[in-house]
Amino acid sequence: MRDESEQLFKDVKKKKIEPVEVEVFVDACENKENTCEPQSATNLHEVSFDIEIRAAIPVKSKVGFAVAAVKQHLVRSLTARAELQYESMDVVEDAATSLCSVHQMPRSATTMLNTHPAIVFSDYLFEADTAEDAQNNFNELLGLKADKEHIDECWERCLEIDEMEVVRAPLDDTPIVNLKPKDGDITSTWSLLIALSVIIAVVSIVVYLL
Predict the structure, then answer these.
(1) Residue 65 and residue 87: Cα distance in Å, rounded?
(2) What 3-state DSSP class applies to 169?
(3) HSE-up of residue 61 (Cα within 13 Å, Cβ side)
(4) Between 3 and 182, where is the model more confident?
(5) Strands, DSSP E only, in the chain?
(6) What is the mean pLDDT of the chain?
(7) Where does this chain mainly localize (predicted)?
(8) Angle at 76 between CA 75 and CA 82, to 5 degrees
(9) Hey, which of 50, 65, 71, 156 would disulfide with 61, CB 3.0 to 4.6 Å?
(10) What DSSP line would sit under 31-74, residue for residue?
(11) Measured distance CA(8)–CA(58) in Å, rounded
């Protein structure tokens, strides 16, 4: 552990600065068991991830600045993946609804700028996408002529079917609160409103006659 006010690199006069590994734990809780409690919510999301990212910072930066850069890159990466995942989803109105569903977000693919290898560009690939798809995206969106050999898609991998089931299992056991009113509840509510209206009308007539 290093103090945030400490200089990240001890000797900034070196011609070549070695990369520094930063580990960020979003939830360091040791208890990983499913301890979910019933909650009233219209939409509840749980995001689980274990990813590796890069962040470029000035040489004379302090440790706290490096940690902030990693967190900022992490938020941007997850936001971009979530937007792509949402845009790729097809809404089928007649399809059977599921109380719980598991989605696998796009994985990262990067390439470097030939004139400045420290500058890295990122793209996100779906399960069926390959390095050639990332190559085409870099060319079409950025005009970047990236060689296929220089595209790194080994940062992450897609989960296998059995691994997806392991993720789904504890979610299926999560209690779901159904907030949709039943037909009987609606009938009781209307009956109560009608009864109150009749009582108010009778009281009004009595007061008027007196």
Answers:
(1) 33
(2) helix
(3) 16
(4) 3
(5) 107-113, 116-125, 151-152
(6) 74
(7) membrane
(8) 90
(9) 65
(10) --S--------S----------------TT-BHHHHHHHHHHHH
(11) 10
